[in-house]
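Minutes, project check-in
Item: structure for the 229-residue chain
Input as provided by the requester:
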Amino acid sequence: MAFALFGNHRARKYAGNALIIHALGGIHEVYFPYVLKHPQLLVSVICGGVTGTFTFSMMHVGLRADPSPGSIITILMLTPSGWHNYIGVIAGILSSTLVSFSITAAWLAWIAPKYRHQQVDAQAVSTSNHVIVTGDAGMGSPSMGARILHDKLRRAGHNEFALTSEPINRLKNTTNATIFVRHDYLERVQAIAPDAHAIISINNYLNTPEYDHFVSEQNDLAKALGSLE
């Protein structure tokens, strides 16, 4: 609900459907990506769960059996008869929802934008150190290639680079970035990222000499800069 109101455009687009599947379908796994994208929101999930359990305990209510799937419809069907039970169960659900919604909304509306702004500012200081390994959407090899290059740079003592793996159709912040891409997609990336520092064509994401050449160039550059100091 918080993502549907305060999330970015992409999150708002899908959060409504996820809310319906979660509440009416009882498929709780649909909210996992939203929480895992912002691990800080584990606090809102925990606080919401604790609040609901506390409310159920204070009002001495519960269900006749475990609801499966855990939809609001199943929960109400398994609530023992009597207005006190229905009021208690609904109160627990609403209080839990209110707490988790409030914490998540506060994060999305006020804290997260400042956090992202700080990240953007930090990247802007050294955009030339941004390295992207890109490929077609859904491919796992670019992310593995980014990890391989990251390890090579780290072993060589170059910790100043920010390495990311992004699908071609979602490339962003390419100004002065060095981009590695398979030769099949070279022209496509050149059209999307004309402001890149360099676009390097490779034949294999997992085993390519271009990674070693790039690391070697950084070693030579570091030596040259050290001799000038």
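Outcome recorded: The first helix runs from residue 2 to 6.
No further action items on this chain.
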